[in-house]
Amino acid sequence: MKKKLSFLLLIMMISMLLISCGGNPIEGVWKVDNLDPEAAIVYLRDNGELVTTHFFGDEVDLAGNYTTDSESNIILNNETYGEASYFYKISGTTLSLIENDETVFEFTKSVERDGFIRKFIGSLLGITVKYINDYAIAIIVFTILLKVILLPISINQTKSTVKMNKVAPIVAKINEKYKHDKQKAQQKTMELYQKAKINPLAGCLPLIINMVLLIAFFRVLLYPDVFIYSDGQSIINANAGLLKGSFLWIENLSKPDLLANISFFGKIIPESAKNIVPGIMPILTAAVTVFSFNSMATPQQPGQNNAMMTSMKYMMPLMFLFLGAKYPASLMVYWTVSSVFQMIQQPIIKKLVDKEVA
C-alpha cells in the first residue's frame, strides 16, 4: 500500500511538471489585451507558422512564419509587412518582445477553455471572486470550502491507512513465512484483509480524486482569464483588475512572487538572476509542504520501504520553489492554504478514526 501511495504521489508530481515544463514554451495564442477587440494577437504554432491579428497593421488574420534562435531572438515574418525582429523573454504566462532594451509588446498567453472539471472549478471560483470581490481572499475561501467538501474522502483515506497499519505486523509475518511462495503470501494477505474488512485500494481512490482536482485547479489559476467565469462571462471581462489583485507583500497575484520584487533584494540580486530567484511565498510554500509531509507521516513497520516517500518529501518542496519563480503567485497561495488546512485537519481526523477502529 505504501508503494502504491508513493507511486501515485510521484505521478502527481510528474504530471504537474509536465504541465509547467512540457512542450514548446513559445507556442500558443498570445494577446496584448484581452479586453480590446482591436488588440494585437499573435498565434505562434509549433511548426513555425504565424497567424496575427492587428500586429503588423490593421488587417486581421495575417499569415506568415516565425523563427527563434539560441540567443532568444524571434523573427516574425509576413509577406505584406516584411520582418519584425525582437529579443523575447517568457515569464510565466507573459511574453515580452524587447527592442533596444525596451519592451515593445507584452503578451498574455491564452488557452482553450476546455475540460469539464476545469470549467466547473473555474465557474465556482468565478462566483466566489464575484461576491467576495477580492481575488486572494476568494482563493483562500474556495480552497477551504473545497477541503471541507472533500472531508469524507479524507476520512475514508485515513481510516484505510489506520487499518492497514494495525495489520501491518501480521502482513510482515505472512510475508516472512511464505517468502518463497509469493502467490501463497498474497492469498493469505487477502484473506487477512477480508477478515479485517479492509479494502487495500480504499486509500488510493481519494489520492486519485485529489490529484485530478489539484491539477485542474492548478490549470485554472494558471489561466484565470480563460477559466474563471461568472454569469456566463470571464471575470476579466467584467473587471480586468480583479485577477491582478494584491495580497500581503505580493503586488500582483497574476505574476510570480520573486525576491527581486522587494526593493532591498532587487538592488543586490544580479540582473540575470532576478527572474529565477523565488520570493517569500514560494519559500513559505516549500516549507509548509515539508511540514505537511511530516504531519501526514505514519509510523513505519519493520521491512516497509519508505525511501520514495522520503524522496517526495524533499522533491515536492523543490518543485514548488521552481514553480513559484515561474508562475503566478496565486498558485502558491492556493497550495499553502491547502497544506496548512491539511495539517490542521489531519490530527483531528486521525484522533476520530483511531477511536472508531480501535
Describe the structure in your own words.
The protein has 358 residues and is of the alpha+beta class. The protein has two domains: 28-110, Lipocalin (Beta Barrel); 113-356, no CATH class. Helices cover 53% and strands 15% of the residues. The protein is built from twelve helices and ten strands. The protein has helices spanning 2-21, 116-132, 135-149, 151-177, 182-195, 204-222, 224-227, 235-238, 263-268, 280-296, 307-324, 329-356; strands spanning 28-31, 41-44, 49-53, 62-68, 73-78, 82-91, 94-99, 102-110, 229-230, 233-234. The strands form two sheets. The protein has an eight-stranded antiparallel barrel. Strand 9 (229-230) and strand 10 form a beta hairpin. The longest helix has 28 residues, at 329-356. It is elongated, with a radius of gyration of 25 Å.
Helix content: 40-55%
Kindly report the spatial arrangement of strands forming the biggest sheet: 1-2-3-4-5-6-7-8
Helices, by number, come to: 12
Distance between the termini: 21 Å
Q: Could you describe the largest sheet, including whether it forms a barrel?
A: 8 strands, antiparallel, barrel
Based on secondary structure, the structural category is alpha+beta
The count of DSSP E runs of length 2 or more, i.e. the number of strands, is 10
**Count of the domains:** 2
* Low-confidence runs of at least 5 consecutive residues: 17-22, 299-305
Shape: elongated
**Could you tell me the mean pLDDT?**
76
Radius of gyration using CA atoms only: 25 Å
Strand percentage lies at 15-25%
What is the H/E string? HEEEEEEEEHHHHHHEEHHHHH
